[in-house]
Target: SDR family oxidoreductase
Amino acid sequence: MSSLDTRRVLLVGGASGIGREIGKAAAAQGAEVIVAGRHPEVVTVPEGGTAIAIDLGDEESIRRAAAQVGAVDCLVVLAADHANGPVESLDADRVRRALDAKVIGPILLAKHFAPAMPKNGVIVLFSGVVSSRPSADLVVMATGNRAAEGLADALAVELAPIRVVSVSPGIVDSGAYDSMGENAKRRYLDAAASSNPVGRVGSPGDIAQVVLLALTNPFLTGTTLHVDGGRRVA
Ligand SMILES: NC(=O)c1ccc[n+]([C@@H]2O[C@H](COP(=O)([O-])OP(=O)(O)OC[C@H]3O[C@@H](n4cnc5c(N)ncnc54)[C@H](OP(=O)(O)O)[C@@H]3O)[C@@H](O)[C@H]2O)c1
Model:
């Protein structure tokens, strides 16, 4: 497997718990890490890295970022925006923003960044276990995640030899559930842990390890890597 030494790695939506862990792991292998999100001013980046602005709902911001950053070797799209709730309650603008983060934004990133990527470049998109195991109130996330997997397969064909892979995490204590409040979050994560075959929820490091594999294994493309503690099948 190749190493990430001197490779330029762009993490979009990379300020999250999982993104931070990927950034640290990539930097430890010698990569230059660039983190993009809607609030670059509050992002912590690994030593030697930079933070830039990208809003996946705004093509102009993607075009500007591509001109500013230039060629990257690895593009990882972690962004997620949430439009949860029963389908009859969904607000159309929130649904669009959620699909901007998971589907339309990644298509526009490929449009603006792929032309400058080297032949051994890699794109990683994020799906999630709700794609294969839908649950009530998560219709939009299930749809966005399944679309991200399809998009990765399709881009792997069109952009070859650039490799494109999707990674599908299970429930991960990444900070994404902090807004539930400590007690509700603990109850939710404990229930998820006890119904997972591995008996626990995931850590950001579990996911970062698999993303690093996707970035460095030259024979991996056009597939989804499920890293979910067995939740998809249990
Ligand atoms: N945590 C889990 O249990 C779990 C389970 C299955 C799948 N996943 C997937 O794994 C990925 C990472 O998860 P996470 O829990 O670490 O993420 P998260 O906390 O939900 O954060 C996602 C990031 O997306 C960014 N974002 C949202 N909308 C954006 C937009 N329009 N443009 C640019 N950035 C945008 C946010 O940054 P700003 O607000 O700063 O822009 C945020 O940093 C996500 O794709 C998620 O769906 C996570």
